[in-house]
Amino acid sequence: MSNLQSPISNPSTPLRTGLQFLKLGGSLITDKTRPRTPRLEVIARLADEIQNAVAADHELRLVIGHGAGSFAHVSARRHNTRQGVDSPEGWRGFAEVWQDASTLNHIVMEALHAAKLPAIALHPSAAVTARDGQVQAWDLKPLRAALNAGLLPVIHGDVIFDTARGGTILSTEDLFCHLARELHPRRILLAGLDEGVWADYPQCAQLIPNITPTDFAEIAPALGSSAGTDVTGGMASKVRQMLDVVEEIPRLEVLIFSGAQPKNVTRAIGGKSFGTTLSHHDNAS
Which fold has domain 19-283? Predict the structure, then answer.
């Protein structure tokens, strides 16, 4: 028998250093104003940028997530799936949202594999249960095993069975927040269409370079929502959600930036800071 240890043989073994989470936002990889419209050239470029970052840092461990964009957000709004499922028609809608999310995930996975990345999809709908819109249980042994084996686990916003709502939807940010509390990444990178968090949305002329938990209340009224259909909340809710995790994990840094600019994803994974940084006040100096 081989002497090689299975990556799942001891799931409590600490992960290697350099763990980061990267989200490819739905507004970045799809046209959110047109139903079920992927930006194939953008997705392919992003995959190449991830490959460049991985090749440059052999100690890097990366969890990739992506939004649902103009795929599942449209069907989710039509069926009101995030708020709950309690009828045969609602469950048919639940399955439709799953299909849309899965279709986009397949497109993303094809691009990652075309870029020669060892990516493996771990669909949240098959592993996560929720209670009233919050992760209740998630067996992370497969995800930990994938990371320990040098693979790139890929998750995405997805439909989730919920003990209070019947069914719901959890966004990539919802899932990242739970994972951050369990795995303690060094950085969470949120690549979207905008350059960062704007102080004057929708005019988008004044970028906020840094946000901490203590100054969020002051800037929240100016943050606005999201362009296109988004059933999981706009920018203000995403920033608040990430700041809650930053308060719990003071050494964590969250970067919100534009993935539309070529090479930005490679730069972000490589440790560069631009766009808007969310951090604990102790790190703001």
Answer: Carbamate kinase (3.40.1160)
